[in-house]
C-alpha cells in the first residue's frame, strides 16, 4: 500500500512557512544521522531482539497508561494496564516478553495529552520543533508529565538514563523506516495530517466520524503510536 499526502488540515497550520523551515532542518539531521543509524540497527539486530526492545519500552509506558486511565475515569482499564506492567516486568523479564498480551490483557496507549483532550483542551495549531518533531500546544504542555511518568525519571545514573533515552529514540526511528517507504507526495503535509488526526483519534478514544484518511493510516501510523491494542 502506498499513501499520498493530502493537505487535509492546512487550516490548522498557521505557521506553515516557519514549520517547513524547521522540518527541512530536521530532515537534514535525520537523513545524515538518525536514519543511517536506524538502518544499521535494523540490519544487524536480530528481529527477536528488536521485538524485545520494543516491548521493553512499551512496558515502561504502562505506568503512564495506568495513571492517565484513572485521570480519564477508566478504572477498569487502569487495572488492566497496571496488571500488564506487573506481569511483563516479572514473568516477562522486565518487559522484553509481552506475556500479558498472550493471556488476553490488551495493550493501550494513553498519555497526558490524551487526558487533556478528554478534559476539553483544544489541540491548538500544529507546531514543528527542532529535533523533537511534530506537536501541538496541548501535546507540548503534556510532555513534562508524560516524561516524568515514563519510568526513566527514577534512574539516578545520568549515563544510564541518557543511554535508555537514546535507545528509545533509535528503536522508534527504526520502526518508522517502513512507514516512510509508503509515502508519496508532500511528506511534510502527510506527517502533519497524520499527526493531527492521530492525536484527535487518541483523545476521543477512536470515537469520531468515519474518516477515509485514518482508515488508510490504521495499518501503520496509529499502530506505531500504540493507540490500538495489540
Overview of this protein structure:
The protein is mainly α and 230 residues long. Helix content is 61%, strand content 4%. A two-stranded parallel ribbon has the order 1-4. Helix 3 packs antiparallel against helix 4. The protein is globular.
Q: Structural class, from helix and strand content?
A: mainly alpha
Roughly how much helix do the residues carry, as a percent range? 55-70%
How many DSSP H or I helices? Answer: 12
Through-space gap between termini: 21 Å
Tell me briefly what this model is:
With 230 residues, the protein is mainly α. It has helices spanning 16-44, 47-60, 62-71, 75-90, 99-102, 112-118, 137-148, 158-175, 177-180, 187-203, 212-217, 221-224; strands at residues 3-4, 127-129, 133-135, 183-184. Helix 1 packs across helix 8 (158-175), helix 6 crosses helix 7 (137-148) and helix 6 (112-118) packs across helix 10.
Amino acid at each position: 500500500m502506498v499513501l499520498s499526502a493530502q493537505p487535509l488540515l492546512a487550516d490548522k497550520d498557521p505557521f506553515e512557512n516557519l514549520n517547513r523551515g524547521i522540518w527541512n532542518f530536521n530532515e537534514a539531521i535525520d537523513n545524515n544521522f538518525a536514519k543511517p543509524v536506524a538502518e544499521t540497527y535494523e540490519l544487524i539486530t536480530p528481529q527477536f531482539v528488536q521485538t524485545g526492545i520494543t516491548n521493553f519500552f512499551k512496558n515502561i509506558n504502562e505506568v503512564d497508561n495506568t495513571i492517565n486511565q484513572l485521570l480519564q475515569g477508566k478504572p477498569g482499564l487502569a487495572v488492566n494496564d497496571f496488571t500488564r506492567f506487573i506481569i511483563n516486568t516479572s514473568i516477562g523479564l522486565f518487559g522484553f516478553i509481552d506475556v500479558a498480551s498472550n493471556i488476553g490483557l490488551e495493550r493501550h496507549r494513553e498519555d497526558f495529552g490524551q487526558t487533556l483532550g478528554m478534559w476539553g483542551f483544544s489541540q491548538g495549531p500544529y507546531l514543528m520543533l527542532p529535533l523533537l518533531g511534530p506537536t501541538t500546544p496541548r501535546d507540548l504542555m503534556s510532555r513534562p508529565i508524560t516524561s516524568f511518568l515514563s519510568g526513566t525519571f527514577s534512574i539516578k545514573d545520568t549515563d544510564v538514563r541518557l543511554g535508555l533515552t537514546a535507545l528509545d529514540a533509535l528503536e522508534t526511528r527504526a520502526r518508522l523506516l517502513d512507514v516512510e517507504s509508503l509515502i508519496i507526495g508532500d511528506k511534510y503535509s502527510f506527517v502533519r495530517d497524520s499527526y493531527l488526526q492521530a492525536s484527535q483519534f487518541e483523545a476521543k478514544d477512536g470515537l469520531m466520524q468515519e474518516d477515509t484518511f485514518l482508515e488508510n493510516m490504521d495499518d501503520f501510523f496509529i499502530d506505531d503510536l500504540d493507540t490500538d491494542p495489540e
